Amino acid sequence: MASVIELKHVTKQYGKSRGVTNVSFDVEAGTIFGFLGPNGAGKTTTISMLVDLIRPSKGSISLFGLDAQRDSLAIRRRIGFLAGDFALDESLTGWQQLTYMGNLRGGVSKVRIQELAKRFDCNLKRPIKTLSRGNRQKIGLISALMHDPELLIFDEPTSGLDPLMQSAFNSILQEHKQRGKTVFISSHLLSEIQEVCDKVAFIREGNLIAVRELSEITASSPKHLRLVSNDKKLAEQLRAIKGLDVLQSELPIIECNYAGDINTLLRLLSHHELDDLTITEADLETVFMKYYEDKNV
């Protein structure tokens, strides 16, 4: 599958300060790609280079096979972008702001704007200065989506949105993907990334430390178990199982992570009386914390 975004050995330095160092990855067409990292890790720096707001000190960036610097204008015609710190004209209503931006761009359907406003439950008649953080965010999202671009690039897109609107946003991303289009999304909401992304990259202190398929993360990560039992010998026997880490063993509740063969565990549990058993896949937060706590990764 063709790559829509490709970074090769990209470094950005701010004088003596670090931006990002030797970052390389690619994003395939028709996928949703998550970009994760704590504050100051280099996420916004990377996104700013993608859209040519700043330029790398070394390395190369291409989008749609075009050079991110030389072909910047052609690339911008094909993307929808929302920065984490975007600004709106507070003297305008939401409708006036979006109409103005649509007219600058050209070719934006007012019907499309109205459809998106309805999906986000966004009142475009109110002055922007009267809007809450979440409602301003909705206008920003509509501005990135209204021209139906080939590639969406978002930096913390659901900041301020309630769970219902986050769900609406996720549905729009999935529809975008189903039509063969691509999404690059940076977020601190790990549950959101886990719900929508096909692949994720982890960046720490300006260095890319992992790029993995979400399905691979799920398959290779430990399962979380919560057992309810008054069997005093159970926790001791669980500790003897290779790949099992007991997190809590204050009866009647035992919690643990298990990275081994589930059948081995089930055979042991079949010899004990349980009141309840819950087995869940590891969430992305568990994987995220592993990468950022283990300095040897």
If you had to describe this structure to a student in words, what would you say it looks like?
The protein has 297 residues and is of the alpha/beta class. It has helices at residues 43-50, 72-76, 94-105, 110-119, 133-145, 163-178, 190-196, 214-220, 234-239, 262-269, 284-293, and strands at residues 3-14, 17-28, 32-36, 58-63, 66-67, 79-82, 151-155, 182-186, 199-204, 207-213, 223-228, 244-248, 253-258, 276-280. It has a six-stranded mixed sheet with strand order 6-7-8-3-9-10, sandwiched between helices. A four-stranded antiparallel sheet has the order 2-1-4-5. The longest helix has 16 residues, at 163-178. It is globular, with a radius of gyration of 23 Å. The mean pLDDT is 90.
- Global mean pLDDT: 90
| Beta-strand segment tally | 14
Strand order of the largest sheet: 6-7-8-3-9-10
CATH superfamily of the largest domain: P-loop containing nucleotide triphosphate hydrolases
Major pleated sheet: 6 strands, mixed
Radius of gyration: 23 Å
Number of domains: 2
In terms of DSSP E residues, the strand content is 25-35%
Structural class designation: alpha/beta
Count of helical regions: 11
Low-confidence region ranges: none
Percent helix: 25-40%
Tell the overall outline: globular
The quaternary structure here is single chain
| Fold-level CATH name of the largest domain | Rossmann fold
CATH architecture of the largest domain: 3-Layer(aba) Sandwich
**Briefly, what CATH class of the largest domain?**
Alpha Beta
- Amino- and carboxy-terminal Cα gap: 29 Å
Order of helices and strands: EEEHEEHEHHHEHEHEEHEHEEHEH
